[in-house]
Design a protein that fits this description.
Length: 166
């Protein structure tokens, strides 16, 4: 879906893409499999290590690095035809200033005529529903099968929760 959306919005073929909150590489690896040229960064060295292992397992060439998305000018060289920021990284910005620093930093990495795409959870819906857990996900690896899910313990006022990862 992301490949189709990126190509339709830009009108270009294979793109240079910065995934500036790549986590374990889910979107970056997928987009690399579609022929895009990826640079993928995250604040977490552990996530970058895992993303690199997964990219190797899938046989894709991605440039990985650790970088703070509020300071991409210092952490990432060059500009890109597309910058993506998926899977709920924006809500980690706890203040208006943090959000502004992030926006400026990301903008500095988008080439003229390029595209920025982001996604966030629908928090209004989460606050209404207050789910108790996420749907279990199954991952098959060479080491075996893993199942993971989160259990959410909501505060009385329903405005915050603590989650446990299993």
């Amino acid at each position: 879906m992301l490949d189709t959306l990126l190509r339709s919005e830009t009108g270009w073929g294979s793109l240079s893409i910065l995934d500036c909150s790549c986590g374990i590489g889910t979107q970056a690896i997928s987009l690399a499999l579609f022929g895009h040229r990826l640079t993928a960064t995250d604040l977490s060295p552990r996530s970058i290590e895992r993303a690199s292992e997964e990219a190797e397992r899938f046989g894709v060439d991605i440039t990985f690095g650790t970088a703070e998305f509020r300071a991409l000018e210092e952490g990432v060289e060059g500009t890109f035809e597309a910058v993506i920021y998926f899977d709920n990284a924006l809500p980690h910005m706890m203040s208006r200033d943090d959000l502004l620093f992030s926006a400026r930093s990301i903008r500095s990495k988008v080439r003229e005529g390029g595209l920025f795409m982001a996604s966030i959870r629908d928090y209004d819906e989460l606050l209404k529903e207050r789910p108790g857990a996420t749907t279990p996900k199954v991952i098959d690896t060479p080491e075996g099968r893993r199942v993971y899910f989160q259990v959410w313990d909501w505060d009385e006022d329903g405005r915050a929760y603590v989650f446990n990862l299993f």
